[in-house]
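dumping the sequnces here before i forget
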Amino acid sequence: MKAEWRVGLRNRRLFFLNTVIPLAFVAPIILSNAPPVHVTAILVVLFALFSTFGSSIPLIRDQESGLLQRYVMTGLNPGRLVLERTVGFVAIDFLQLIPAMLLIIFTYSSTLGSTLLFVVAVLLSLLAGNLVGVLAATIARSIAEGALFSSGIALYLVHLAGVFRVASGGSLWATLELWIPFRPLYIAVRGIVTGISPTDTMGLMALPIVATVGLVLVTYLRGQMLSISKKMNS
Amino acid sequence: MQDISLEGGPGERIVLMGPNGSGKSTLLRSLATELLYPKGPLVIFGQPIFRNLQEVRRKIGFAGDHPIHLPSLTGMENAQLFTDLYGLERKDAGPVLENLFAIFGLSKVKDVPVGSYSHGMKKKLQLVESLAHNPKLIILDEPTLGLDPSALEAFVDSMNHNQNQDSCIVLATNHPELATKVATSVVFMVDGAIVVQGSPAELLQRLDNEAKVEIWTSGTAGEDIVLEGIRARVFSDRIIANMPTDVAGLPILMEKILDVGLVISKVEITRPDLADVFGLLTGTSLENDHLPRAGS
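..and the predicted 3d for all of it:
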């Protein structure tokens, strides 16, 4: 995790780009007269993609270079290694998204409650998105594959969160929707953009948090498979 | 790979020699627990590695043939990252790293990003990272490949006088002088099997009564030149022959070389080295891996 911080902060050009690019996407959208439903969808998609790419690409790059194998060879628990790196990715992603988040908060004059919900929802989405990115990285064989898998899974989860459609009440999709880690982000952004805040924030957060904990466990177990990654030719 | 058993204790230095494809790197990577050995349990420190893989790995220092680092971090930051991962406290790791950086001549560049290091400097940094946590088993794959002669000398010194006297070192190299200087035991490998094992002195004794004659030529004879009692190996730029120490056959060999139209530029008579012993005992050559010698 320390290395993630050092690398992230040392590579100032990349850090600057990763800070400016979300801002450059967010600004024209929220300053336009686009309908709130479109603004909400675009912002959620943007944040979801940003979180998954942030972890999958560096992990695949380190796998390809052999650096990840070097880390594992030090005797570090590989599951713990990927989780620690995920925390580092989340922290860096969050720092890089702060300007874009501030712009959203101030543009829509968000209330304190809505702002707090937004920040917590962004953190949860970043954690879930980065875990998805890590999982995508463990099955991808190239950076291109990793980007494809992670963005595909993220977009599907965004869809399942109800961003693009309204599920029929009581249906399987409506039930599933409540578990998706990107749903609190969707509800929080929609609340800020429309000015209508959700009432049951605890109910909104509970199931996505449980789902994210499940993702943490799956990622830990998947990380264990990095223990010995190659078979010797007999 | 065939069934292989290597035995080594504290202070021992086992050198693997063999041509490309002989299995040296595969053996080292499996010993380092990087590769999964498919034919049965790999036993290190007297225990199957899967019984406590992470603990075994903490006792191993491995430097592969390709140095890999975080290019945006400095040499010291990279080294600290690995001492952190091995679980060393910063206050304990600091003096050890400073000492190793000095031994390998990296002190002046310790605060420079590794992205601007040469290949040789990266190799040296990888050696620092492999040795810093005082491992019980040090595994080095071609550690001197790409090092300049002074760095090679520093490496030999570090192997002979380093603080890892309670470690067992297993390294692969086809550098005969390096093997002679550092090895307590030399292992010749061919086709994934150990063919011969012995101390450098024992192995060199096999050619005790012979001299090695290297004749540097322009052009090539294209095939081995066979003389009575002498077998000469022909390379693009030189011919190497082993003959009795009185080198009585040298004039005949030189005449034969001149007869086939080659021009002789230099003749060198030396003691046979481990590469010659390898050729004698295995019938194959290390030459495709031959390296420039220290100080040459």
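Residues 19 and 286 of chain B are 5 Å apart (CA to CA).
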